[in-house]
Amino acid sequence: MSGDAIAVHVDGVSKRFSHRVKGEVYAARDVRLAVAPGEFLTLLGPSGCGKTTTLRMIAGFETPDEGRIRFGDQDVTSLPANQRNIGFVFQNYALFPHLSVADNVAYGLHVRALPAGEIEARVRDVLQLVGLAGYEHQFSSQLSGGEQQRVALARAIVIRPRVLLFDEPLSNLDAKLRVQMRTEIRDLQRRLAITTVYVTHDQEEAMAVSDRIAVMSAGSVVQEGTAEDLYYRPGSEFVATFVGRINLVPARLLGVDGDVATVEALGASLRARASAAVSRAGTAVRLVLRPESIEIVAAAGATLTAVVRSRMFLGEKTEYTLACGDITLQAVRHSASGVEHADEGATVGLRLADGALTVLPERDG
Amino acid sequence: MLLARVVMDNGTFSAAGLDKVLTDRNQLRAFWNSLLLATLVGIGGTLLGFLFAFTAARARLPRWLLTTVDAAVLLPLVSPPFTTAIAMIFSFGPRGLITYELLGIKGVTVYGLTSTLASETFTYFPIAYLTLRPLLTAIDSNVEGMARSLGASRWRVFRTVTVPLTIPGIANAFLLLFAASLADFATPLILAGNQFPVLPTQAYLQITGLFDLRGGAALSFVLLLPALIVFVLQRYWVSRRFYVTVTGKGAGQTTFDSVSPGVRVALLSACALVTLVVVYFYALLLYASLVMALGANHAFTLLHYKAIFTGGMQAIRDTLLIAAFAMPLGGLYGILMGYLVARKEFFGRRTLELLSMVNYALPGTIVGIAYLIAFNDEPLVLTGTALIIVACYVFRYGPTGIRATIALLSQIDKSLEEASQGLGARSGTTFRRVTLPLIAPAFFAGLGIVFIRSMTAISATIFLVSIGWTLITVKILENMTELALGPAAAFSVFVVVVVFAVIAAIGWCMRRLHAPGATRVTSLLS
């Protein structure tokens, strides 16, 4: 099914809503995105950040107040949804309750007035593809959540859309199924090579499926990049806290050399990656410290020491709460990475893994 | 409950007179006429109701317009049964405003199928509107959006998604209208005339004109059959076919743009036209109540109002008194029965529910005659007392409260009550502190409906009034037959004003409650 994938461009798109209390509010504000042909881009953010509005504008369910949207070379900004040739998957599946599985999937093909034989063949193929062969005559009320989601997926891809759009497709599924389905969606998208925009508030899900992630907050894109970029090089506290868990430690900037900063924090001098906004020596900054980059070692001879406040063994990993002076740190140690063992109340030494630290300015901005 | 049983027993009791009815050509014609009228009203009213419901749910009306439409549409529902009929005569009668004054047509006859059909359609289409609107609103806008993203045009989405999803509601609306028309006795009595006899009026004439209780009962029994079929269809066929379209989290704040600007204007114009007709009817009624004699003498006067507040005072007092008694009883009956049926397990639970609903679903004529027969002899001689009218109202219109209570309780998870018990509350305390506040909206819905019906009903109670106790609606009918249209109009205006005031008061109470589901139940005030 892989055809010629197209790029999707969102150029400075804004959407305003009138709010009963707050008056005019921006649901999306000057959003700029460039999705490469065949790329899987995820819009990640908390609820109300404008990710769904942006997606619905790409789909054509909403018309932007400002800005343009292009599919390849075509400006689709004012093109109605039914002429955009998109595949959309809703969080609540939005299956037609009065139609069988086969008729649900065939709906878009009937609209395109394809010959009956071809419709039948394509419905059969796509149901096979999503693992629902034999479900043709069932109704959505007879299907489980995961099965309904597969029907929705089949219905969206059977029309061979130019762009595939997902609006929190896994939110209504239970945790195990969610993990399984996201792998399937990822594999399917790779196989079909359809340009895809995916919306979720679950950072782990975003990291699992995406080529690239755009983190949104308050209607705007705040940072864009691969999962690794966002995780190791967050540009703001918002991104740092939203993507993964962090410890945020107050620090003082001693000096910057290229993109390496030297800071004083936790009573020690540490080297960290400097974000662009940090430059002046002597200023107060914040240090981003990932829980898994704190290593627990013997207290003797360590530059940093801490007291173990609590310890929680979770099988594959152990989580610690540590008191380092008057600062509380969260640390995660994987069971395979060593046998260091610290009881509650014990004093331990800490070692920070290289390249694990990022410096952020005192205030986001 | 005994009362409901008697209604059922009425069937066997009166079966003896059946052959007579079935062999009488005239009565047979009335039977077919009734069915024809009911079918046409069902179709016309459902179409009109769908038009309004679709416009309200999809055309993105500004709030004030929606409120206006709602109020105009509700008017016929809270009016005494003759209002549109009176307005029809004022407009199209021999000296009607439109036929005579405007078009100069003389000797026109307003009586017959067409006028009855038009009048009943305008009176009952709000039922279809209230049935269909929540359904259309509840359709997940994502489902329609999905169809659109798959390439379907708006018209195609409407045809292949919206309408199929509404089919159960449409069937339901049709059946409700069919039943309402079948049971309507007031409109045909005034408009159908000799040319178009229908069953409920025949039964009435049989009893009040010929004092033939048995014949009347038999006639109404013939009516029972289609009424029961409709009831059964509605309960066991339609109700199973509703699609559950609400899945998981709501579809979000945005609605799908399903109506193009051109269609929107067309829809609005159509609705505006119908609303205008309804408003015109009521304006005419108000006007007629304020002039000497519409069509002859248009001098302003308050004479008709003076007449109803002097000569008609007894009826007004009686009606208000009976309504005031029936209202709290009906409300309590509704929530108690609803609570029992929804939350408690006991022998005969389903039967109890069914019986209470039957009282509600049967045409008023049948219920009235049944009460008349049941309480005419020992051990309970109630005929002629106010009590029989109150009882009739409570048991006939209380079921709205029952339905509302069941609907509310089915939304309220049982764990809420269990949580209260888990916190140490006894079951009595739990009922009082948790359950009761939650079903309070149903109580008010019950109050409202019983009051409205107490003010406006006629089909059942016309058989139950006496010299000692009479009702406004009956008075209106008397005025109509004596061609005293002025006082009839004045009475109608009075009833509409009182009912609107009470609904407004109940609405205000409900808003103060802030209970979940309060708004949903408001729609049951039909």
Short summary:
Chain A is of the alpha+beta class and 365 residues long. Chain A has helices spanning 51-59, 101-111, 116-129, 145-157, 175-192, 203-209, 227-232, 237-242; strands spanning 8-19, 23-35, 40-44, 66-71, 74-75, 86-89, 163-167, 195-200, 212-217, 220-225, 247-257, 260-265, 268-274, 284-289, 294-297, 304-313, 317-324, 327-334, 347-352, 357-361.
Kindly describe this structure.
- The complex is a heterodimer of chains A (365) and B (526).
- Chain A is an alpha+beta fold and 365 residues long.
- Chain A has helices spanning 51-59, 101-111, 116-129, 145-157, 175-192, 203-209, 227-232, 237-242, and strands at 8-19, 23-35, 40-44, 66-71, 74-75, 86-89, 163-167, 195-200, 212-217, 220-225, 247-257, 260-265, 268-274, 284-289, 294-297, 304-313, 317-324, 327-334, 347-352, 357-361.
- In chain A, the strands form four sheets. Chain A has a six-stranded mixed β-sheet with strand order 6-7-8-3-9-10, sandwiched between helices. Chain A has a five-stranded mixed beta barrel with strand order 11-12-13-20-14. In chain A, strands 15-19-16-17-18 form a five-stranded antiparallel β-sheet, with no helix packed on it.
- The model of chain A has no long low-confidence stretch (mean pLDDT 88).
- With 526 residues, chain B is mainly alpha-helical.
- Chain B has helices at 2-14, 18-23, 25-58, 63-74, 83-92, 97-102, 113-138, 141-149, 154-183, 186-191, 199-209, 213-237, 261-290, 303-310, 313-343, 349-361, 364-374, 386-397, 399-411, 414-422, 427-456, 472-481, 485-513, 518-522, and strands at residues 291-293, 297-300.
- In chain B, a hairpin with a 3-residue loop joins strand 1 (291-293) and strand 2.
- The longest helix of chain B has 34 residues, at 25-58.
- Chain B starts with a helix and ends with a helix.
- The chains are: A alpha+beta (365), B mainly alpha (526).
- At the A-B interface, helix 1, strand 6 and helix 2 of A face helix 8 and helix 9 of B.
